[in-house]
Amino acid sequence: MTEADRLKVRRLINGVMLTSTGVCTVLIASVLLFILGYLLVKGARNLNVAFFTELPKPVGEAGGGLANAIVGSAKILAIATLIGVPVGFLGGVYLAEYGSRGFAFAVRYVTDLLNGVPSIVIGIFAYTLIVAKVKHFSTLAGGLAIGLMMIPIAVRSTEEFLRNVPNGLREGALALGTPKWRALATVVIPAAKDGIITGIMLNLARVAGETAPLLFTSFSNRYWSPGLQHETASLPVMIYTYALAPYDDWHRQAWAAGFVLLMFILLINVSARTLLARSRHGGGR
Amino acid sequence: MTIAASAPTQAKARVPDSGARALVRRLFSGDEIARALVTGSAALILVLTALLVQELWMNSALPRAKFGWHFFVTSVWDANAGQFGALPFLYGTCVTSLEALLIAVPLGVGAAIFLSELAPPRLSDALTFCIELLAAVPSVIYGLIGIFVMMPLIKDYLGPALKATLGWSPLFSGPFYGVSVLSAGIVLAVMILPFIVSVSRQVLLAVPGDQREGALALGATKWETTWKVVVPYARRGIYGSVFLALARALGETMAVTMVIGNAPQIKASLLAPGYSIAAVIANEFTEATYDLYVQSLIELGLVLFALTIIINGLARLLVAGTTRFSVNSA
Question: CA A119, CA A142: separation in Å to the nearest integer?
Answer without folding.
Answer: 12
